Amino acid sequence: MDPYTLEPVESNEQQGFHALLRFLRVVRRHKSVLVGLIGAAILLGVVYFKRTPQEFESSAKLMVRQLQADSNEGRNDKGNGLLMSYQQLLLSDKVLTSTVEKLTTRPPELKDSERTQWPGILRTKLLNVTFEEDGNVIEIRCRSRNAEACVDVIHALIAASSTFMESFQKNEALDTVKKLDERREELEKSLFLRERDLLQARKDCGDLAVNESSEESHPLVQRVNHLNDTLTTVRSRRLELESMLASARGLVATNSDLTLALQKLDSIVGPKVMEQLPGTPNGSPESIRKLNDELKKLETEWTALRRHYGSGHSEIIRLEAAIRMQQQHIAAAENEARQQVNVGIRDPQVGQWLIATIEAAVRSTQQYEYSLQQEYNQVEQQALSLSDKLAAIQLAEREVETLRQSHSSLLNRLTSINIQPDGGIFRAAVLTEPLVPKFPVFPVLTHVLAAFCVIAIAIGLGVIYVMDLLDDRFRSPEEVREELGLPVLGVVRKLPEHEINAAKIYVHGFPQTPHAECFRTLKTSLTLSPIDTKCLAITSTEASEGKTTTTVNLAASYAQTGVRTLLIDADMRRPGLSRLLEVRGHGGLSEVLRAESNIPEMCRERIVKTDVPLLEVLPCGPRILNAGMLLSMPSLSDILDWAVSEYDQVIVDCPPTLPVSDAAIVGRFVDSMLFLMNPDKTHRRSVTRAIDQLRAMDLKIVGIVANTSLSKENNGYGYEYGYGYGNDYSYGHDDHDDDDVVDAVKPFGSIVNGPTRDDLSADNNHGKAA
């Protein structure tokens, strides 16, 4: 995996959840503040409860309804408006003043108060009037320090509101009747005048039956419509005759068949005109029809005579001869008609007669059309002059109808008004009677304590939050573990100033002190860690946190247990390790990193032995400017591979994490990293940011070591950071234990009271396995 690949970024919800968990841990750490504030709140709540006067409350419900419903409004809006109006009535100054006047015993809140102050006191301190939106119910609540006064006030308020409504509605009804009666008289006068004007207008028009609701129109208008229809028919007939005349002239000029023209003339002028046709042939339809009629008469006569006479009778013989002769005439006429159809009528005499007949019809039609047009124009002028009068009549009829409706509505309102004492439009019925309360409603001890406790918790959380913002330090190993999610492997106690100056490597110069045991405890924790720590890099948040001192003493603790240990100074910017051990002039890591070959040999040449057996150091070498670029070269991996193959334990002293990225570069090539922090010097946010930066690069962090070797005696909270050791347990021995002590330290000679043989055996096995 790419060491620079970042872990998935937490969402806002996850970050918020983690922040909440952290704040809960802070609250648990400062729970004494919260508990103290809650205790004080309970005490103040009890004092407040004892010193606050008790208040009692009584209530009653009224059902308000309107006797006269208004159909123009919706039911819900009407109900809400009614209840709101009655609520304002109950809280009005006049009703509230009348309420106090009806009281025999006034509440304590109204004592020593003036008349003008009564409504304000009742509205703000005693009364609460509400209504339910889904029903016509108003609830009246009264709260007072006197239980009986609550009931008296509610009764007096109901009585005062009823008295006010009766008086108000009676006076209002009388005023309404008076105004409506005056309006009625005005309407009657106006209605009489308009009806008289309407009658006169109808007389002037000439037809008294004309009105807006009549289905028949004025006779003059009817005459105009009739003349217009007749004139249109005559004009159409004239145009048709003129068209036929032009067609007939063309047929006669070309000697064409006149049959179709004669038939059309017959349909327009009438069948009688065909009888006037000159030279009518026997084969015409009219001649054939007459012959058929005569034949039917002969047959009818023959049938009648046959019933009385025989077939040889002379009259019968004569009729039969006449019938045969008539049938021959009909057959000849039909034969002539068929020939005429084939040949057509082309007689010039018939053509001239046809033209003369059509011309006569056209002249007659034109004269008739002219006379109709003259009459239509005269009647139309009379109708136009009549329209203004009809419009005036219709307007007058509408005004009269409007006045009649208004007059009728006014009479209905006058009839519906009830001016009796009990004839108001509102009714209020008491649904629940007010009862004398037995227990006070305020203050309630549980409610007071709950409110004070909630306020105390809010204040306490705010105080704890501010304390957490102001105190940006870790105060215990548990806090470090919970905040960073890493185990605290050890706590380095404050080293005495005179002992630090006396020895470069503290655990080597003062092996019997409890402070030296801190480093051996840290070494044991690293040895038992489930993460591989054979090649270990040590870093911190910022500079001057005691990282170099801890690194040297941890390496010396490994060496004192028989583990061959190599200490590499990878801080080429500020080489504190090389300066502490005074190995600056021996060359070191920077030279090896720039080498292209023979890296093991160059490392062996620059290894420096220390005063502690089995502990050797690879100095940083000459300082360079591009330390980060140099550490990124592949040579660093070869150096660490060689060191792991030659030594049982390799510890790399790295620069701080936040200022530079050198520690992250080195962390790619080591087994794990140990993070050092100074709780009294390093800010919590800086440590968290540094740990997140290393985790983002997928580097393994074995744990945290808290270094207080540079801290003050007291961290400001009254106790020394870390677990420490008790006053009764320390290094030292009685006189009769000297022999055991000497035997215990013979293998190394530099430790007066070191670990047991079992610990040494475990460390040696760990080194060999590594």
Total number of helical segments? Answer: 26
Indicate the overall shape: elongated
Summarize model confidence as the mean pLDDT: 77
Note the main sheet: 8 strands, mixed
Q: Gap between N and C termini, in Å?
A: 24 Å
Estimated structural class: alpha/beta
Name the helicity range: 55-70%
**Beta-strand level of the residues, as a percent range?**
5-15%
Rg over C-alpha atoms, rounded to the nearest angstrom: 65 Å
Structural commentary:
- With 770 residues, the protein is an alpha/beta fold.
- It is built from 26 helices and 12 strands.
- A hairpin with a 5-residue loop joins strand 2 and strand 3 (137-144).
- Helix 7 runs antiparallel to helix 8 and helix 9 (285-306) packs antiparallel against helix 10 (314-343).
- The two termini are 24 Å apart.
How is this structure best summarized?
This protein has 770 residues and is an alpha/beta fold. 58% of the residues lie in helices and 9% in strands.
Topology:
Layout: H1 12-29, H2 31-51, E1 56-66, H3 75-90, H4 93-102, H5 118-126, E2 127-131, E3 137-144, H6 147-205, H7 219-253, H8 259-269, H9 285-306, H10 314-343, H11 348-416, E4 426-432, H12 445-470, H13 477-484, E5 488-492, H14 497-502, H15 506-509, H16 514-527, E6 535-540, H17 547-560, E7 565-569, H18 576-580, H19 589-593, H20 599-606, E8 608-609, E9 615-618, H21 627-631, H22 635-646, E10 649-653, H23 662-667, E11 672-677, H24 684-696, E12 701-707, H25 738-745, H26 757-769
Parallel strand pairs: 5-12, 6-10, 6-11, 7-9, 7-10, 11-12
Antiparallel strand pairs: 1-3, 1-4, 2-3, 8-9
Helix pairs in contact: 2-12, 4-5, 4-6, 6-11, 7-8, 7-11, 9-10, 16-17
